[in-house]
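Changelog-linked ticket: 5-hydroxymethyl-3,4-dihydroxypiperidine example.
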Amino acid sequence: MTKFEPADPTTHFPPDFVWGVATSAFQIEGAPTEDGKGLSIWDSFCRQPGAIADHSNGDVACDHYHRWEADLDMIADLGVDAYRFSVSWPRVRPSGAGTWNEAGLAFYERLVDGLLARGIKPYLTLNHWDLPDELQAGGGWANRDTVHRFVEYAQGIAARLGDRVASITTHNEPWVMAVLGHENGVFAPGIKNRATATQAAHHLLLSHGMALQALRAQGCKARLGLVLNLSPMHPATDSDADQAKAVLEDGRLLRWYLEPLFKARYPQDVLDDLGADGPQVEAGDLQIIATAMDFMGVNYYSRSVVSAAEPWDVHSSGREVTDMGWEVYPEGLTELLVRLHQDYAVPPLYVTENGGAFKDRLEDGRIHDHQRTDYIARHISAVAEAIRQGVPMAGYMVWSLMDNFEWASGYEKRFGIVHVDYATQQRTLKDSALWYRNFLQQRRAQRRQRQAV
Ligand code: IFM
């Protein structure tokens, strides 16, 4: 049973508010070399001993490359307005440069047309982390050339699909690619160097701004934006040390991206902290990064609690946590959205990812995932509260449509509202999916009633 009743779906959300579900290419597609696809940095990273908790890889994942039609029927059955997915860059341009792969392009064309035929808006992401491996051999995101290869890729996809997709997101979560991929080395490409990470972050932002300008110049009709992973940073205590640490961490996760995007500058406190590890920025880069977006996506899962001494132990705090060990903290989503609205000239905002990994049990063909349902309902209410406080919210998307390859955690963590049996590839709607479908049905019914009065 849901512990927390969500906000009234009709009164709190604008009529054109978009409800969706989200996935990404590497996490669901499989078929890593089929029909001419090239390898990505994640294909290679999975082969590094110890990189993935359960020693798995994306070779099969949810086999979506072969099951896409049934998956689209399943999405339509949920009654959502939109499906957020990503294009695999090495599937459409195997080396990241040079020849395009027609079979790969045709796959995404079928996917987009299939969504439209089912009345679902396609929300396309260009880069959800699976950089072509050959570009990594040349330095990847740390090399400024990759910026230009990305712009070419964006132009090619927009020329092919830009007339049919509702939106194009350049990058999903640049912080994750830069910091987890290049500083901590726990994600592909597995580099551990802070200066490399900072340079990669700058090139990701630069390529975003350049792509926006290039796509607008070619007359792309889709709405253009970027998706950031953001969390409020709370000091563990009132001590000066904890508060100072929280400000710096806020700089590294939030302001490092928000300040260049909306104020054409990097935050000085973070630059000071980076010292010689700061990025090489050429004249004009920051103005390009600050190119106006049509929308921005926020991926929210939890807050961060920061301590200058010991890392804060969420488990001994008594707070509810997900299977990822992330605190369930819906009020942080309202806090974050209100802050974005107050501190920056943000365009319409989407929550482009929100959801929880929990240990699911299949019982008599059902998955009673009350915690996930509760998590989603409470976060939807947090969005409603942000709207009430004046934040220009445009949509909300559950992460994820279905269980999938959760990066370094492999298949051990399940985020889906649809259960995937990886042995048989059978999909089963969890109770959270049934709840979401019912919530959306109610919203439609109530809207019809109001219109009739
Ligand atoms: O699975 C990921 C997704 O690819 C990016 N955002 C966070 C999710 C959960 O970890």
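Closing comment: Example verified and attached. The chain has 15 helices and 14 strands. The two ends are 32 Å apart (CA to CA).
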